[in-house]
Amino acid sequence: MATHAAFMPGTKVSAGSVIWSWITTVDHKRVGILYGVSAFFFFLVGGIEALIMRLQLAQPDGTLITAQRFNELFTMHGTTMVFLAIMPMSAAFFNFMIPLMIGARDVAFPRLNALSYWIFFSGALLLHLSFLAGAVPDGGWFGYANLTSHQFSPAHSIDFWMLGLQVLGISSLMAGFNFIVTIINMRAPGMTLMRMPLFVWMSFVVQFLVVLAFPAITVALILLMFDRFFGTLFYAPSGGGDPLLWQHLFWIFGHPEVYILILPAMGIVSEVLPTFSRKPLFGAPVVIYSGIMIGFFGFGVWSHHMFSVGMGPVADSAFSIATMLIAVPTGVKILNWIGTLWGGRIQFRTPLYFSLGFIAMFTLGGLSGVMHASPPVDLQQTDSYFIVAHFHYVLFGGSIFGLFSGVYYWWPKIFGKLLDERLGKLHFWLMMIGFNVTFFPMHFLGLIGMPRRIYTYAPDLGWNFWNLVATIGAFIIALSFLVFLGNVVKTTRSAAPAPADPWDGRTLEWTIPSPPPVYNFAVEPVVHDRDDFWVQKYGDGHGTPPRKPSPPAHVDTSSIHMPPPSYWPILLAGAFLFMVSGALVSIYQVVLGGFLTLFCMARFMLEYHHHTDVGPAAGGHH
């Protein structure tokens, strides 16, 4: 499987060398698998946190956990799902698939890619060390001032959250710049921007959102750090500061972040639907432009999260109009997806089920979102369970369904085996039913007055029945993921090897073996059309006959030069974690960690300073 595919032919493989090779890898495929496994682990952690909260709310006057523990759980659940599950699951696909889909042998900066993963892992570790320290973040995943000030949160709980998010932001920025350069510079000959696969396009937009949005939350967190560590008053009205400054800085990051989470899923759906409809994506250029417009408008709607703070009629009107406008390119995408299915020879396989589920659930979430473009409606529903229902329809019904469509679609390419169809469809139906049973009743709960973030409620408020229903749904979702894990175990143990092109695909990743060799492409592909592989097999449907690929030239694959492994990424990430965590322990640890970080950074930069031939240049397109 993928373990052995990461070694060049002829390499002797032992258990120790396998573990060491994963720790020191700079191969984009293995980094992608590391991201994916980490994301799924934290997805399970966040899911367990959600189940505990649902058990607490299943009945009125619940006593399973205390109010303080409930605050900790919803804070860590939100933070984990957004930053440690959905984002890295998208990053897993960015890492593994983008070079394959653009015909490259690796990303532009392989060691930076490995470093971005280990920095991400350090941030995740720092956040979860708070459980061991007994100071779990409890201010909500949005960290509103003044809850996060030293006056109201004197313990280290907010410090763990604040520092962990800064570390995770650095990781995201590293990856964002890396993929921008990769997509611009390393496409195969003939792959113009408008011939790029839709998943690559949506990923491209996401990277620009990352590098433009994360600096805003970084600034917000640095100001919070100064308030907490050095006594400044950026968010304290008593010293001339403003708590709303945090909300503006957070949400000008937070709303592009929503599109950072959803656009990769949209890209996956735009790959899955044409494959299983056996026809090109309807209006592909319009889908590309609508994705760009979503990214552009995403920076102009942030204050619809703040209609209740009293910004005034002019600001409310501007953000209301912008929020209505951003629904247009999303609606365009849905129209194009339906147009792709219309008249196609549809093959109902598991990836298509999840993509169709994505379209249906995301449309519902989008409709409840457009409702909140109206300030009076938003004022009525702000901080009620209606909002909880809305964003779970977008982020679970959207992102998670879309990402699992990608998991089932690309699993044979990543691991060389097809997941079981019967279990895959059972996973889908359990997840779809459980999801709707959990979150649809929350619309009703919100409309009859149940506020968010309460840990218990009186029995005479009319909320009992729907809370019990939602809790039952949450456990159906949990059961669906047990089915998925069983599918993975069964496939790993007994499934037959997958062919290179099990779905009769359209893009370049299906032209190479499953799992791909370490060098991806023995011969650099040349691209002539948008769905180049499909045109090679079947023609373009307008009279152009299939284009027979030229016979493969004999290539001595042992002579293909790939970037060698490096242990400096994990050492640099470890030193950085030691320095940052020192802010919670001692100034001496910060200073020592700073020197260690500078030393590792210098060694990282100069590792191949005297070896000018090392790097992906020997294998990629320039």
Written overview of the protein:
This protein is mainly alpha-helical. The protein has a single domain, classed as Up-down Bundle (Cytochrome C Oxidase, Chain A), CATH 1.20.210. Helix content is 65%, strand content 0%. It contains 18 helices and no strands. Helix 4 packs across helix 8. The chain is globular, with a radius of gyration of 24 Å.
Number of domains: 1
Mean pLDDT: 93
Helix content: 55-70%
- CATH topology name: Cytochrome C Oxidase, Chain A
The CA-CA distance between the termini, in Å, is 30 Å
Put simply, the count of helices is: 18
Name the CATH homologous superfamily: Cytochrome c oxidase-like, subunit I domain
Query: What percentage of the residues does DSSP assign to strands (E)?
Result: under 5%
The CATH architecture is Up-down Bundle
Low-confidence stretches: 1-6, 612-622
Shape: globular
**Largest sheet composition:** none
Q: For the record, what CATH class applies?
A: Mainly Alpha
| Secondary-structure-derived class | mainly alpha
SSE topology string: HHHHHHHHHHHHHHHHHH
